[in-house]
Amino acid sequence: MLVETVVLASVGLLVGVAAVLVLPEYFPSPRALTVLTGGVAAVVAGLVARAALGSHHSALPTGVGAVTAALLVSVLARPDRVRPDRRSRRHSRRPA
After folding, report:
1. What is the pTM of this model?
2. How far is CA 12 from the centre of its chain?
3. pLDDT at res. 1
4. How far apart (Å, rounded) are the C-alpha atoms in residues 93 and 35?
5. What is the spatial distance between Cα 87 and Cα 81, in angstroms, rounded to a whole number?
6. Looking at the domain assignment, is residue 50 inside a domain?
7. Does 92 reside within a domain?
């Protein structure tokens, strides 16, 4: 159970760090809040899933923790506060 908790925490922290690195302009709150939200959400959801499913399933609680971490980190995103000139340039049109 200790190893599973460490894996869940690592997955959640990875989700939080990935969100901050990929879309930094969407997270005006402190970066630590975003990263820790991912970690705590993954651990809590994974342990609840493990308690509900039993100890036979090892990968499913990790998946549940990762999805829950992604969903709760996305709640912190604030796309309405991004200025139009700072949005991602991946989808901008190039002049012909």
Report:
1. 0.79
2. 6
3. 81
4. 33
5. 10
6. yes
7. no
- The CA distance from 68 to 45, in Å, is 7
User: pLDDT at position 55, please?
Assistant: 79
Q: Does the residue 9 lie in any domain?
A: yes
Determine, yes or no, domain membership for 45: yes
Q: Which residue has the tokens 């340039």?
A: 89
- The continuous run of DSSP H or E covering 72 comes out as helix 59-76
Q: Which among 71, 58, 53 has a CA at the least distance from the CA of 12? A: 71
Per-residue pLDDT 10s for the chain (96 aa) are: 889 899 999 999 999 999 999 998 888 889 999 999 999 999 999 999 999 988 787 789 999 999 999 999 999 988 887 776 655 555 555 565
What CA–CA distance (Å, rounded) separates 77 from 93?
Answer: 25
Domain count, the chain: 1
Q: In this structure, what DSSP letter does residue 26 have?
A: G
The number of beta carbons lying within 10 Å of the beta carbon of residue 83 is 7
